[in-house]
Design a protein that fits this description.
Layout (H helix, E strand, L loop, with lengths): L1 H8 L5 H7 L18 H13 L6 H14 L9 E5 L5 E6 L6 E8 L2 E8 L4 E3 L9 E5 L8 E3 L1 H36 L1 E2 L2 E2 L4 H30 L7 H27 L10 H11 L6 H24 L2
Parallel strand pairs: 1-3
Antiparallel strand pairs: 2-6, 3-4, 4-7, 5-6, 8-9
Helix pairs in contact: 3-5, 4-5, 5-6, 5-7, 5-8, 6-7, 7-8, 7-9
Length: 318
Amino acid sequence: MMDAVFAEHGRDADVWRRLDELGLVRLTGAEDSGGSGAGWMEAAELLSAAVRHGVRIPLAEHDLLACWLLDSVGVACDQATRTVCVLDERGVATAVPWASRAGRIVVVWPHDGGYAVADVAVDALAITPGANMIGEPRDTVTADLTTLDGVAVSSDLLAQLRLRSALVRSIQVCAALDRALELSIEHTTSRHQFGRPLSKFQAVQHQIADIAAEAALARSATESALSVATASDWSSPSLEFLVAAARSCTGHAATVVVRNAHQVHGAIGTTSEHRLHVFTRAALAWRSEYGSVRYWDEVLTGMAVQSGANGLWGLICP
């Protein structure tokens, strides 16, 4: 099953196996259940490294979301590759990452006035393949809710799943923006025009400065949310505000970084042979997943208004 993933994206078919042997596929899992016992900070570094090297595999979906949720409700997580989705009342979930390439899918669905979760084999579900703009599987999953048998899951755990999912994409977008900055600096310092490097032109310097500033703002907001999440074990009352701020910043930063990076690269940056589009298109794709930029802008604005003048500072600096 994983061979199809790597074949589709041009990766070494042994990457997932090698990562598994190194204990990186289940990086944050408990050691007594086959994991490596690491935390979100280490996982964030691994995700960022994967993005920087153009490796597109479901590390976050498997470890940080699906297996974490199973662990949280006391269900064993074996070596099968997993993703997670939340079904609606019809038993349908859309744009599910990697569903058509997973071995099992952790499904959450409305049940008895609350929610239930189950670890389901893919052949027990109907999966309609789809993809995002960079070719990663984003599939429609359909289940017969009457046949599912699961474990009750609390609303707090589902809320945490939502924030975890959103922060995963923020981490990935930041890594893509940082790589676009690096490529832009490399290009403008190595290419010459009118007898001097492009980086010596003031207009180009301004564009690079804007890329660097926006990427730094996005990373600062994301690291702030991640720091509070890990320090509070995802229980801080201000965490949703900080995640919303991170997603808003990364989403808007992507617009500036992608525009400026392609401008300073010129025509070469639009070719399929150049690496720039691997990161700019990824940033644009990921910023719209697990909540669009507009959605997180509205969450951020709503919480800021609701907190009032006396409560806003406490949200910003918990």
